[in-house]
Design a protein that fits this description.
CATH superfamily: Cytidine Deaminase, domain 2
Shape: globular
Strand order of the largest sheet: 4-2-5-6-7
CATH class: Alpha Beta
CATH architecture: 3-Layer(aba) Sandwich
Structural class: alpha+beta
Strand content: 25-35%
Radius of gyration: 13 Å
Number of helices: 3
Order of helices and strands: EHEEEHEHEE
CATH topology: Cytidine Deaminase, domain 2
Distance between the termini: 31 Å
């Protein structure tokens, strides 16, 4: 049986940001979360905590990102992590990791819809910038 968070559908980056920003925006270290979605982009269960890092980085392994999506029979994911500095600009590591995970999702048949970087009071979306 699948637990859907009733009424929560991710239609855009702002929807995902609104769902997790309180959990991430004031953290002192980087945290990486995934939202698992069904075929209609309903959120399936609570956000998955994938990894916790340091003040300036987080090590993310593809199998950890997709594990719950496979378990929950997810069709897509939205990845979210924070920048404790508050600056939402992308690092080269953010770009490289996203490309790697998008490719991994294709192999598994799980769409990576977005990767959102959360800052103090704002966010940056790879999808909105045309990077996914």
């Amino acid at each position: 049986m699948r637990a859907t968070i009733k009424g929560i559908v991710i239609n855009c980056a702002e929807d995902a940001y609104n769902l997790v920003h309180k959990r991430l925006s004031r953290k002192e270290q980087e945290d990486f979360l995934c939202l698992v979605l069904d075929t209609k982009h309903n959120v399936v269960g609570p956000a998955v905590h994938v990894a916790r890092g340091t003040l300036s980085s987080v090590q993310v392994v593809a199998r950890d990102v997709f594990r719950e999506a496979v378990r929950r029979n997810g069709a897509a994911i939205v990845m979210v992590h924070n920048h404790p500095s508050g600056d939402v600009e992308l690092s080269p590591d953010d770009r490289q990791l996203t490309a790697k995970l998008v490719a991994g999702g294709k192999l598994l048949g799980i769409d990576v819809l977005d990767h959102i970087v959360v800052g103090s009071d704002s966010y940056m979306s790879f999808a909105e910038r045309g990077l996914i």
